[in-house]
Structure formats: structure tokens, C-alpha cells
Amino acid sequence: MRNSSDPSTHRQREQRLIEHVERLLNDDRLRIDTTNGRRAVATLRRDVRKEDREVDLKRMMGEMGIPDRQLQAKMPLGQQISVTLSRTAFLIFKKVVGELKVVCLSPRRELLEGKSPQPLSAHDVKQAMTELVGDASRAPATIVLMSTCGFDLQARELVDRRADRTLILVEPNDAGGWSVTGPAQVKGLADLFDPEVDTDKRKRIREAIEVQRGQNIDGTVAANRVATTTNLPLGMVEDELKSYAGETPGLVAKRIEGTVVLFNPGGISSTSAGGSHMTFWDNIKGIFSRRETPDRKIARLSETRVGLSQQREKVYELIGNLEKKEVELTSGFAQASALAQRRIATEVASIRADMQRRHQLLSAIDKKINVVNAAMHRLEMEQQVNPGSLQPLEALSQPSEQLEEGMAMLDQMDEDAEIDAEAGMSALSDNAQGVFEELKARTTPPAIPMTGSEAKSSATSPTRKTQAANDASLNQPRRADAEPG
Q: 3-state DSSP call for residue 485?
């Protein structure tokens, strides 16, 4: 968490960037603007000065009345590196051709007070440029500012590239990595100042994969969700998913519905079942019309189920966006004018109609998933009750009887799994309806007891009388039927 109130966290971030920059100075990829165009820092003469503002920290702690040496040892020091690049002129004279300045900024006053720091604003960045960077007019300067608590949106908009200066901002993000903001013209240069190496990034991707596999019931992991969680490039996440699948038996990584998905196809790695141009029912029929082993059919059905699950997740996201939009509109309904209220009501009605259509689409997708699950279960049951698998049990029971019972069970389950997947039916299934009513009962507050007058009035109402009569008839003993003869 970038707004941590722990001073040692900010000090570690500061130290990590400084160490990264020191290694970067010997990297041929580091090319910055000079008076002679962009040049590699490693090929020029370098005058490196490493400084900090520890004296300012001690003065601040004295002014605040905090003489705590242990706290001082944990505080960030405001380290900075200044690199002056030069070339030799006429074999004697040294001519400055460019500068690189890396400055670490930390909210030291907030950390001393034990507060949770806020991201630095545009005003803080401008002040740092004036106080710490100084005049950089004698040669083009590349300035890198790192905030251990991050920057706000207005501060990030200050990044630019001019003839005399290039500004790059580096900050930690909430995903555990780093975000680098720089001019679009020098994106490759800005990316070099990311302190997190590829090994650490891939490690974070692996950790996110493990977490999502544990969270999802079927163990499916989508690349776009991992990229959002880790705040890392989608291409890197997709490559790591494929590598993870290659190292883990029983898993495959395929592009389904536009994104790479890691899933278990039933133990067999298979190709796409029919292609994306085939309809759902053609796909299912094609699977069972092929002369393939049950394991391979299960693998194809598993891939189909993953694709349907991805479609369902996209619909859930659309419904969530519509719900947020409705909340935004209804929140200002009371304060709006009469004309605005009519407009809000019209928009909300349209949003709810759209949500209803999305729920109908969800119902159709759920029914398709149920059909696929039933087909997979049927194949698994057929594997269990076929004569070959039952022959070893011949000494214990009659295989023919077990086969007949198993096939009868399969026929019954097949009839139960016949579900119409046509859109337009948004009702919940019986199981889902039962769960819904159970959760609704848990969240519904208990009824407030009625006063004596309210109870008397309620007891005399027709509905109460009818209910009381029904209850009385149910409580009466049932008359025994007369015995014949």
C-alpha cells in the first residue's frame, strides 16, 4: 500500500530506486538527451554525486520536538543522484553535454506525526523542481522524481519533454509494483526507471495466478483479470500463463473469447472444439458425433464451458456498470428540478430495461453451462458403468445388473438435463431460488412488535381472519375414515 504510515516502508522504496539507478548507469540502453542528441550514458564521462537531506530531517524532528533516534533510523533520507555528463574538447577541456538527476521525495512530516500520507500534488512537484533540481539551462537535463507515496492525477500531467528538460515520475502502486509516467516520445527511457525487474514481475504474476485459482471454483484464471490485479502488461501476463500451463500437468492456456485463459480441460490438452464460428448447439453435436475417446470429449466440453464462463463474466461487468450508473442518477433525484427528475426517471427506466435484458442473457448462458455440465457428467458416468470398468467387479456382483442400473440412471439424468436455452427466461432455478430466499431471510431485519391497538386492528382484518381460520382447520384432528363393512 503506497500510503503506508510506516517510515521504514518509504525508506526501503527510496533505497530500492537509488540502487536500481546506480546499476542502470552502466546499461547501454540508458540514452538521454544531450547537446549532441540522445546518447548512451555509459559512453560519456560521468561525474556522479550521491546526496541526501538527513540534516533537514534532524532539523525538522528538532522543531517538532521528536528526539527519537530509533524513529530517525527508519525515516527516508531524501536521497538523490546527480550525474553530470561531459565530453573532452581539444584533448584538455571538459564540456558538459547533459545531466541526469534522480530525486526521492517523501512526506516526512506526515510520517513523523504517524499520519497516512497523501499522494503528492502538482504544487509539490513544482516546488521540488524549483528547490531541489535548480537551474538546468546549461545543458539538457533528464529529471526523475520518485514519490514514496505516489502522485495525484494533476501531478502526472506535468510530465513533458522540452529542448532543455525531460521530466519522468516514478511511484509505487497498490498492486505491489511500480508505475512510471513519462512523455510518450521517450516511453522506452521511462520504462528503464522501473525498479522492479522482470523476475520480480513474473513472481507477482505467479502469486496472482495461485490466488485466483484458489478463489475460482473451477480453477479458471483469465489473463485480463491477472493484468488488472498486478497492474502489469497484458502480454507479459499471457506469456506467464502459458509458461505456467506448460509447467503444471493437467492445465492448458488458450485464447478464448479474446483473452488467454488458464483452465483444466479434463486432463487432456486438446484443440479448439469446432472453432468460434460454430454455434453452441452445433459445437455440442459436433463433439458427440466425433469418434473420440470420452476423455477427449470431456476436454472439449471443458473448453466450451470456460468460454461460456468468460461470456458470463463480461455480462456481470456490464450489469455492474449499469447498477453504478443507476445509483449515480438516483442519488441526485431529490435535489433535481422537476424537468431533471423526469429525465432521470426516463434514464433509470432505460437502464433497468437494459439490465433485465442482460439478466435474460445470463439466464441463457447459465442454461448452456448446465447442459455442458450434464453432458460431462454423463460421459463420466458412462466411463464408470461401462462393461470394461465393471469386469473387475465380477467376483463381487453381477456386472450386467450394475450396467443396467447405471444406464437407467444416466437416462434419467439425461432427461433431467434437457433444458431449453432460448433467451427471454430470467427466473432463477429452483436451487438458486432457494439460496436467494435463504440469503434474503438472513439480511431482512426482524419485524418490530406491534402495540396492543395495532395487534387488535390487525386481528380483525379479513386477511388475518382468513389466515386464522385456515390455521384452525389445519390444527383440527383429522376424522378417521369409516372402515368398510
A: coil
DSSP code at position 185: G
Q: Report the amino acid identity of residue 230.
A: T
45: cell is: 564521462
Residue pair 405/393 in contact (Cβ under 8 Å)? The answer is: no
Q: Which three cell numbers stand for residue 463?
A: 386477511
pLDDT tens by residue, 53-70:
899 999 999 988 988 889
Write the burial class of residue 228 (CB in 10 Å: 0-12 exposed, 13-18 middle, 19+ buried).
Answer: middle
The amino acid occupying position 165 is R
Cell digits for 36?
549532441
For the record, the C-alpha cell of 191 comes out as 520504462
- 163 is written with which cell numbers? 529542448
pLDDT in tens, 379-403: 888 777 766 655 555 544 444 555 5
The grid coordinates listed for 231 are 497492474
pTM of the prediction? Answer: 0.59
Q: How deeply is 473 buried, as exposed, middle or buried, from its count of CB atoms within 10 A (0-12, 13-18, 19+)?
A: exposed
| Chain position carrying cell 438472513 | 442
